[in-house]
Design brief:
Blueprint lengths: L1 E6 L3 E7 L5 E10 L3 E2 L5 E3 L1 H15 L8 E6 L5 E3 L9 E2 L7 H10 L2 H8 L8 H11 L1 H6 L2 E3 L1 H10 L4 E2 H4 L5 E2 L4 E2 L1 H7 L9 E2 L11 H4 L7 E2 L3 E2 H8 L7 E6 L3 E7 L11 E4 L5 E7 L3 H10 L5 H10 L8 E3 L17 E3 L7 H23 L8 E5 L1 H5 L1 H11 L3 E4 L4 H13 L6 H4 L4 E4 L3 H21 L21
Parallel strand pairs: 1-6, 6-14, 6-15, 10-13, 16-22, 22-23
Antiparallel strand pairs: 1-2, 2-3, 4-5, 5-8, 7-9, 11-12, 16-17, 17-19, 18-19, 20-21, 23-24
Helix pairs in contact: 2-4, 4-8, 10-16, 11-13, 13-15, 15-18
């Protein structure tokens, strides 16, 4: 068996798989948690809370385990955590959706060439990435920053706590904005811009380099004493593998707490088109795509704020309103914008409200707005994909709402294969661990999955084209620039909006 551990932005999960990626019945445990958010754009997790949740998930599944050969780990990309000299956390985990470093992005753009940086690191200058966060912390919390001996993520904390040595995988490093992907080393210019030294980061490691459990954890988990633990990989990369999107033949769309569209490729490195990023699965394979800070959290926000009915009733109402003209235009940036405009100051907006507007209208328009943003990312990914590629959709949010999956198909104007795999990231790291152990010879064919085909309605696609034009017009009016495939840094076009 393989133990898969997935540390997500809203929950930790542990699950047992065989070496072919088949889940063990009853071998899963999930513990939910919520980030602390603040009115000024903060989004933080307590590192100890995440560590405890991960350990409790492992405790829960081990009674179902036998003959454990390896442990694969996925964690959310971009999370920044400061450690003291004893490798103990001394800061919160600053999340990808924390936008308080927007002014630091402006500072970096005044002195650095964004296009050159994207070509080297695969990451634009943005609040999601470490350079802006580190610069911001140096400005607003110099005393806190001075106490930090090393910078890493929750993956390094798990590795140090359980294995005795923290390492940063190539996959996790590639999404920091500090990593030169061609050289496969920390980028000296970006380290200087962020004000950190390479010695303040953890050693780099690839996914085949495993370690074993240390005391006292080996006594707590004797079934894992001889298993090989592999470095944490970015959850987005793992999700692609788990949903069968392992090459240019398939584009993956995932809607969980946040949302993304991604493509795995071993083609030569190239600067990602503006609007997209390029990270790595491992030293050989890249992952190109775009991410939204919004996904299932938009649905959850609407359900709570609008006091919606129980989910089945809401789903029926969404289906019944599929062709209704609600007259609304929504920017879904409740946690700021990433792809495709990369504005650290963009915020959510709803235009077109009237006395006739209903809560279902607002929910449907909000879900459609996320589908439109995914369509904009998809348009940028198409030239990188193979002709005749498939689009595979996954994620808990789409499992719970078939109506939303149909919206995405209609926004893209092409069919979706809705994967039946509920935990794509967990399955992905299980398969990666099996491959690293030499137990998975034909990686590409093994991970193929089937699902429900959702067709795109041509008439509704035309409606979504009109909605997209309205959304782009609202974006230009409130944020500046364009939110579509020709997007450019919005903060270069307009000053910060009041409030």
């Amino acid at each position: 068996m393989i133990l898969a551990l997935d540390i997500g932005s809203s929950s930790a999960r542990a699950a047992l798989y065989d070496e072919a990626g088949t889940p063990v019945p009853g071998g899963g445990k999930q513990i939910e948690y919520r980030a602390r958010v603040t009115a000024d754009g903060g989004a933080e997790h307590d590192a100890a809370r995440l560590l405890d949740a991960a350990a409790a998930c492992i405790d829960a599944v081990l009674p179902r385990a036998s003959d454990l050969a390896g442990v694969g780990i996925s964690t959310f990309w971009h999370g920044l955590l400061g450690f003291d000299g004893e490798t103990r956390p001394v800061t919160p985990v600053y999340m990808y959706s924390d936008t308080r470093s927007a002014a630091a992005v402006d500072d970096l753009r005044r002195t650095l060439d964004d296009a050159d940086i994207r070509a080297r690191t695969g990451c634009p200058l943005h609040t999601s990435f470490w350079p802006a966060k580190l610069r911001w912390l140096g400005q607003v919390a110099p005393v806190v920053r001075a106490t930090v001996a090393r910078w890493g993520s929750i993956g390094e904390l798990l590795a140090h706590e359980w294995l005795g040595e923290g390492v940063t995988s190539v996959s996790m490093a590639s999404a920091t904005g500090l990593f030169d992907q061609e050289r496969r080393a920390w980028d000296r210019a970006m380290l200087a811009a962020a004000g950190v030294d390479e010695r303040q980061l953890f050693p780099l490691s690839d996914l085949h380099q495993g370690a074993t459990l240390r005391a006292p954890w080996a006594a707590r988990w004797p079934a894992l004493r001889d298993a090989r633990w592999f470095p944490a990989v970015g959850d987005g990369a793992a999700s692609n593998i788990g949903s069968g999107c392992t090459d240019r033949e398939r584009i993956a769309i995932n809607v969980g707490t946040s949302a993304a569209a991604r493509l795995v490729t071993d083609a030569p490195l190239a600067a990602p088109p503006w609007g997209l990023w390029r990270y790595r699965l491992d030293a050989r394979r890249a992952v190109a795509g775009g991410s939204l800070s919004e996904g299932g959290d938009v649905y959850a926000w609407c359900a709570e704020t609008l006091a919606l009915a129980e989910p089945d009733a809401v789903e029926r109402a969404l289906g019944a309103a599929a062709d209704a003209d609600h007259g609304l235009t929504v920017l879904p940036f409740l946690a700021g914008e990433r792809s495709t405009g990369w504005s650290g100051r963009a915020r959510g907006a709803i235009a077109g409200l009237s006395l006739a507007t209903t809560p279902i209208d607002i929910l449907r328009a909000s879900l459609e707005s996320v589908a439109l943003r995914l369509a904009a990312i998809y348009d940028l990914l198409v030239p990188l994909a193979a002709l005749g590629h498939e689009v595979v959709a996954s994620g808990g949010a789409l499992m719970r709402s078939g109506a939303w999956a149909h919206m995405i198909a209609d926004a893209l104007g092409r069919p979706l294969l809705l994967s039946r795999e509920r935990e794509a990231s967990s399955r992905g790291v299980a398969l990666l661990a099996a491959a690293a152990l030499g137990r998975l010879a034909d990686f590409g064919s093994t991970v193929r999955v089937e699902g429900l085909r959702i067709e795109s309605d041509p008439r509704r696609h035309e409606r979504f084209r009109a909605l997209r034009a309205r959304q782009d017009a609202l974006y230009r009016a409130l944020v500046g620039g364009t939110a579509g495939p020709s997007a450019a840094p919005a903060s270069l076009h307009t000053p910060e909006l009041p409030g």
